[in-house]
Write a structure and sequence with these properties.
mainly alpha; 0% strand; Growth Hormone, Chain: A; 2 domains
Amino acid sequence: MQHPASPTVFHMPWIIKRNMILLALALAFGGAGMQYAYGFGPLMIVQLTQSAGLAGVSVALIALSRFAIAYPVGKITDTYGRKPGVLMGLALAIVGALVLGLSIGWKSPAMFIGGLFVFGMGMNASQQLRVAAADMAPPRMRAQALGYVALGSLFGVVSTPIIVTAADKLAPRLGMDALALAWMLLPILIVSGMVLVSFVRPDPKEIGMNLAHYYPGYKPPPRTEAKESAFRPMQLWRNPASRIAIVSNCSGQGNMSIVMVLTSLVLSHHGHSLSAIAFSHMFHSIGMFAFTVPLGKLADRFGRRWIMYPGVAVALLGAALVSFTNGALWAVTLGTFLVGVGWAGSNVASTALIADMVETNERGRAIGVNDSAAAFISVLTALVTGPLIELWGLNAAGAVAVLLAVPPLVMFGYRIVRGNAPV
């Protein structure tokens, strides 16, 4: 495993800046589909099955698809390069989007489930764009690079309403369901993302294995002699630093998964309008993506832990505001915003920390392990949130969201007591 490099400050060369811009734009175009999946998935499954109790199935499928693909696509990108893995993922997403569109027209729940699973695998495979960004920056710039690419997701949020509006206007003329047409139009954005990825040269993995060629004066840490096949997921869990990074990312993801559901339900329960609910969700998305660059810069300057642990703590505070403020619009909106900011901090910092600790030809699998663990937590939270609300009410689910943020803070406190705080 690697160790952080010296604190030398480097200037990013133009070829890498160009690649970063292309990756960010690709995530903006290609990643817009996840807004479809989260926003329309519950509506589609209810429409197809006439059962509100199955609304959480779509969120669980997205998380399950991430669990299924994260490590295998990491293996692919570690072996063949980042671009082939990302392009494969986007191609899968196109197939899934078309099947989802057909599932509405043919009123087929089975097609919906299959299409959403394939679409989710494709979208989650394309998240190897983050690995590509990490490859192209030395450790002291790595979190910032991750932040710039993640910022593309914020622009992806904007593109979704444009496509949906176009589908609303065109569907009556074509005699189609507007939701089905929206999915059929989505491949236009995904293909645009694929074109942008194709212009990334050279492959980010190649840049990562030769950083000294692009950053004069950079001295890489001593490389291990381990072969590519020697990487084992458990080595991340055995290392205290990467273990806490994985737990922090899982806590942030699980906390956010519950809060995303709670925000709508709490506001609706207290009589707020659909526009108020949309307003709160908009602030949640802003919290998730608008501050990734400054958070990345802070993580590079002061260390990963100074962003990772506060991120988890901020998410905990946000979940409490959403859950225990009696549905006050300002409090719930502030809470869901803070959950987004906390998730961004814990995600960017934990991903950068894990990227720091492995060789370039292991990084795709290492971050895949991190993503798989977070996806597993998301599946669990998606499955338990509904029963928790039904049996014990909204506050019970909120309490679980708060508790999910506690483990990494406890682990960090334990390390302080043991005198091993720097993680």
